[in-house]
Amino acid sequence: MKTLGLSAYYHDSAAALVIDGEVIAAAQEERFTRRKHDAAFPMRAVQYCLEQAGLQMDDIDHVAFYDKPLLKFERLLETYLAFAPRGYKSFAQALPIWLNDKLFLSNLLKGELAQFGDRALGDDRLLFTEHHLSHAASAFFASPFDEAAVLTIDGVGEWATTTLAHGKGSDLKILREIHFPHSLGLLYAAFTYYLGFKINSGEYKIMGLAPYGEPKYAQLIREHLIEVKPDGSFRLDLSYFDYCTGLTMTNERFDRLFGAPRRTPESALTQREMDIAASLQQVTEEVMLKLTRSIAKSTGLRNLCLAGGVALNCVSNGKILRDGSFEHLWVQPAAGDAGGALGAALAVQHMYKGVPRAALGERTDLMQGALLGPSYPQAECEARLHAAGANFVVLDDEALLDRVASAMADGKAIGWFQGRMEFGPRALGARSIIGDARSPSMQSVLNLKIKYRESFRPFAPSVLKERASEWFDLEADSPYMLLVADVTERRRHELSEAQRQLGGLEKLKLCRSEIPAVTHVDYSARVQTVDARTSPRYHALISRFEALTGCPVIVNTSFNIRGEPLVCTPEEAFRCFMGTELDLLVVENCVLMREDQSPALRIHYADELEAD
Questions:
Q1: In this structure, is the dihedral angle defined by the CA atoms of residues 507, 197, 559 and 596, taken in order, positive or negative?
Q2: Residues 334/26, Cβ–Cβ less than 8 Å
Q3: Which of 69, 68, 9, 67 is CA-nearest to residue 38?
Q4: What is the pLDDT of residue 101?
Q5: To 10 degrees, the CA torsion angle through 42, 44, 45, 51?
Q6: Residue 580 and residue 54: Cα distance in Å, rounded?
Q7: Distance (Å) of CA 300 to CA 40, 165, 232
Q8: DSSP secondary structure string, 27-59?
Q9: Which residues lie below 8 Å from residue 100, measured CB to CB, with a gap of 6+?
Q10: Range(s) for CATH 3.30.420.40 in the chain?
Q11: Residue 310 in contact with residue 403, Cβ under 8 Å?
Q12: Dihedral, 423, 427, 430, 434 alpha carbons, nearest 10
């Protein structure tokens, strides 16, 4: 059975193809259109999925959409009625969009998909799953577990903002829900807005900023903004927020509570913003731990799956794992709305049509390392690079690994483009920028001269799976960079008393460990464990680097610049190379040196970048 899953019209549109329980292909539309978080119908992602499987649209048995628009419209109407007459301006803006497009989404989808084939897309072929069920299905059915508790947390779906489900075999049942407007995801988004970052994009900046601050406002948040019960269920005091009916996330009462208006985007960050970020992160972790402890106690289950945008909070994930309420934790790598496309397809296959789950064999899960996007054969890469005006040499595998490992050891920053593109927000060694984790300057070089982003943002380590516990306090695998763990004590550097007293961004200057480029100011790291079976060339490269330096850890960050999606094609990799200070670009077996490129192809767009 062939099922095409879709998510669209909010943010991070995507398409995913599942055949007989196997995940064949998945990609976000942004990677093709180059519009970050593109919400449009995923035309090119659909085309890619069909081409990857050698199928036509007429071959598809079912198309599954990741939420139910009528339930969302019900929530919109009931919310505005509940708050009337407040919010009329917001209601007047939203209603025409719904009446023209979203309310009749079935017809809109049928029209978009009609261009891919002649076979009529009747109501028996076009199916809709509830938003949080899509999230839950993306986590459980792709996981290694035959039975597990499934927790999904995001901003809001139709009504649900948090759900608990029980998955067993090919069955998945929602057991409990927390409904809008009470939402941990929207609380986090409100602070993202208040601190001057982009909603649905800048939340991870809060997580990265938090270790620079102290949780001085945590009690204020607990007393005024969120009431948390012992079982982790919660309610928000809506008098501080404007997202139900307004055009902003917070209001003047929120400003008064924190003693100042919203930070102007792109303005200088102060210790106050860092302390607020630390406070929000602490409260978020408390809620997550109470929820997971309660779920473990009430279900008696030992496996936990996570999905929804809040599941991308890898600091919380790491604490859930270390807490020990569950023995095993698995997080969907495309935990946000993009992953809903995959979940919708899996839900239709297993729950609606009764397709058995695919056997794992020697695989750790069904996600193929999240390497589900397009790839480009060597000959095509060469042709595309030649057409773009690039100068390069082609090396065999051994020479390539030697060249790149040596370049990293020499302090070079490298664009690494290999195999199938990642699905989800993390670069995992296919579309990555890599460097030497031992370099004290690599973190600032990558942030300021290559990524063109804020200096405080940390970078992740890629470590050989078999060496991970020697460098990080991590006993589990973390293939998708969704767990934070501390650098082990024996790899840390002792700080003087004066150094420990430094505050704010002054902490950035300190060399805390043997791998300072990936050690955050609180000694933590967002770890990716690299498995030779899933990522053989990436594993071989890190192994070669270890043979050269004795260190099995390298820096890994996404191959893009601020405000742009991850690169998808060889041309995009070359363009990013020519617009940054990267020293070396590797596209499959093609190696490009900066000094060999024509100065006429240099791109100067650092000052024109959008905020991310």
A1: negative
A2: yes
A3: 9
A4: 60
A5: 140
A6: 37
A7: 42, 13, 17
A8: EETHHHH--TT--S--HHHHHHHHHHHT--GGG
A9: none
A10: 2-142+333-366, 184-329
A11: no
A12: 180
pLDDT of residue 90: 63
Report residue 504 CA to chain centroid gap: 26
The superfamily CATH assigns to domain 378-608 is: Carbamoyltransferase, C-terminal domain (3.90.870.20)
Q: Does domain 2-142+333-366 have CATH number 3.30.70.20?
A: no
The structure's pTM equals 0.94
Residue for token digits 């460097």? 435
- Collapsing DSSP to helix, strand or coil, 409 comes out as helix
Residues 6+ apart with CB under 8 A from 69: 102, 103, 105, 128
What's the rounded Cα separation, in Å, for the pair 232 and 518? 32
Residue 503 has pLDDT above 80, yes or no: no
- Helix runs in 178-240, H state only: 184-194, 203-209, 218-224
Tell me 448's DSSP state. Answer: I
Quick: pLDDT tens for 317-355: 999 999 999 999 999 999 999 999 999 999 999 999 999
Its CATH architecture, for the domain 184-329, is: 2-Layer Sandwich (3.30)
Task: With cut-offs at 50, 70 and 90, classify the pLDDT of residue 89.
Answer: low
CA 324 vs CA 320, 475, 476: distances in Å: 7, 12, 12
Higher pLDDT, 244 or 332: 332
For the chain, the straight-line distance linking the first and the last C-alpha, in angstroms and rounded, comes to: 39
Three-state DSSP class for 365? coil
The dihedrals phi and psi of 516, each to the nearest 5 degrees, come to -65, -25
Q: What is the DSSP letter of 170?
A: T
AA letter at 326:
F
- pLDDT tens-digit profile of 407-444? 999 999 999 999 999 999 999 999 999 999 999 888 88
Contacts of 441 (CB under 8 A, 6+ apart): 411
By annotation, the residues acting in catalysis are: 11
Over residues 160-197, the pLDDT tens digits come to 999 999 999 999 999 999 999 999 999 999 999 999 99
Q: Is the preceding omega at residue 85 within 30 degrees of 0, hence cis?
A: yes
What's the rounded Cα separation, in Å, for the pair 342 and 17? 7
CB 144 within 8 A of CB 480: no
Closest alpha carbon to 403 in 579, 593, 231, 148 = 593
Pairing of strands 431-436, 524-530: unpaired
- How high does pLDDT run on average in the chain? 92
Other CB atoms within a 10 A radius of the CB of residue 303 amount to 19
Question: Residue 80: is its pLDDT beyond 60?
Answer: no
At residue 313, φ and ψ (nearest 5 deg) are -80, 90
